[in-house]
Write a structure and sequence with these properties.
This protein has 172 residues and is mainly α. The protein has one domain: Ferritin. 81% of the residues lie in helices and 0% in strands. Helix 1 runs antiparallel to helix 2, helix 1 packs antiparallel against helix 3 and helix 4 runs antiparallel to helix 5. 28% of the residues are buried. Bound molecules: MU-OXO-diiron.
Amino acid sequence: MLSSKMEKALNAQITVEAESSQVYLSMASWAETQGFEGVAAFMYAHSDEERMHMLKLVKYINERGGHAKIGSLQAPPLSFGSFKEMFQTLFDHEVSVSESINELVHISLESKDYATHNFLQWYVSEQIEEEALARTILDKINLIGDDKGGLYLFDNDVKQLTVASSATEMTK
Ligand code: FEO
């Protein structure tokens, strides 16, 4: 059985993951309107992943006798400046998600809830991967700067990353 503090904290994470999904969906749509199909595909796929992160929490809370609550979400921004700014936003966002996962781990240990602690390890690993991926992309885009030809190649590169990460996802 989940403690009420743990249940509340896990429920708050549902909102964090759902809002992440909306932010990436908005980034996907914005990139698509700019003609960057690779970036858009990457963001659409990432948005789906966040929804999956959210669903996993919903199922877990209910499975442990709690009640997963689906609440309202904050609207994401509609545009993101440049690609560099957009990927910086994505990276910063993932760092803040990692912080909230760490806080959940802390609460699980504090309440001696080892089942939840175990459940959260999946998110801890996932955040390491997500931060690393965001950092790799950010490094690439920093190298390119505002060069149009570079951005075109970058768009293709990111498309490959999307294919590669979905393939890894399937083997998990
Ligand atoms: Fe669900 Fe990107 O953290």
